[in-house]
């Protein structure tokens, strides 16, 4: 009996860890790495995924975004933010790797993600800070 309970618990924990976002949660995000001039933003996309996700990363004052993977789609006129448009992204994890011109202070990082929940007219915005 105890062995079956442990096996069931192990399976449930494994499934939960493999699920990018809980049911009803279309998108979550967090900064995974902030190291010197490198920053990684991780976006977890639930199932069903939104048709499109707009990610806007603020560029810390005094710094320039030198490189990004995937490449950003648009830079603001004042070069104070970069935007990515993730169209038809499937469920799972999307990493955005950024390289800045100088060391990044975590307190200066902020991004916004906007998306429409599939099957509804509901638009959502989440703000991500370290």
List the helices and strands and how they pair.
Layout lengths: L1 H17 L8 E9 L2 E8 L6 E7 L6 E5 L4 E2 L5 E7 L4 E9 L10 E6 L6 E6 L2
Antiparallel strand pairs: 1-2, 2-7, 3-6, 3-8, 4-7, 5-6, 8-9
Strand content: over 45%
Instruction: Catalogue the unreliable spans.
Output: 5-23
Question: How many angstroms does the end-to-end distance come to?
Answer: 43 Å
Strand-pairing-aware structural class: mainly beta
Biggest sheet: strands, sense, closure? Answer: 5 strands, antiparallel
Note the run of SSEs as H and E.
HEEEEEEEEE
What is the oligomeric state here? single chain
Arithmetic mean of pLDDT:
85
Count of helix runs? 1
Shape summary: globular
Q: Considering DSSP H and I runs of 4 or more, what fraction of the residues is helical?
A: 10-25%
Radius of gyration: 17 Å
Using DSSP, what is the number of strands?
9
Strand line-up across the major sheet:
5-6-3-8-9
What does this structure look like?
The longest helix has 17 residues, at 2-18. The protein is built from 1 helix and 9 strands; from the N terminus they run αβββββββββ. It is globular and about 45 Å long. The N and C termini lie far apart (43 Å). Strands 5-6-3-8-9 form a 5-stranded antiparallel beta sheet, with no helix packed on it. The chain has a 4-stranded antiparallel beta sheet with strand order 1-2-7-4, with no helix packed on it. It is mainly beta and 130 residues long. It is 13% helix and 45% strand.
